[in-house]
Amino acid sequence: MARRGLSSAKRSRWSDLGRKRRWTSEEARAVFEVQSRSGVSLAAFAREHELGLPRLYDWRRRLAQPSTRPAKGPRLLPVRLISTVPDLREHSVIEVVLVSGRRVRVAEGFDPVALGRVIEVLERGTC
Fold first, then answer.
1. Which of 3, 33, 92, 118 has the CB geometry, 3.0–4.6 Å to 108, for a possible disulfide?
2. What is the pLDDT of residues 8-61, one digit of tens each?
3. The whole model's pTM is what?
4. Alpha helix (H) residue ranges in 2-111
5. What residues contact residue 100 under an 8 Å CB cut-off, 6+ apart?
């Protein structure tokens, strides 16, 4: 049975994408861009292009949500000075306030690698 008004080239492009096990975000965005320009409902678009409707609903939900993945590697955060320059003749302490509100104080001569590990564990909230 021939599809209504779809060229075989267009049909195979979308059919091939529909058979793919996983889509990239870019592929999903391309599908929704074409769907929105088509003026037809999501269900009609899925039927017409041989795409799974549940997959389209899932991708629409995913693309609408802000990314919840944590940024890889260290992030720079705003710093606010809360006191004047300390007297360096006394014991120097650095206080780091994490996004979670936890505070880490380190004395001069700290091991930066160890501090990085401590901050990573605290930011994950696994302690």
1. 92
2. 445 546 666 667 778 888 888 888 888 888 889 989 988 888 888 898 898 888
3. 0.43
4. 8-19, 25-38, 42-48, 53-64
5. 122, 123, 125
Q: 38: which residues sit within 8 A by CB, 6+ positions away?
A: 45
CA-based nearest residue to 88, from 104, 107, 103: 107
How far is C-alpha 50 from the chain's CA centre? 28
Same domain, 122 and 80: yes
Six-digit token string for 42: 């999501």
Same domain (yes/no): 102, 53:
no
Q: Which residues pair with 103 in a beta bridge?
A: 97
25 found inside a domain: yes
Backbone angles phi, psi at 105, to 5 degrees: -110, 130
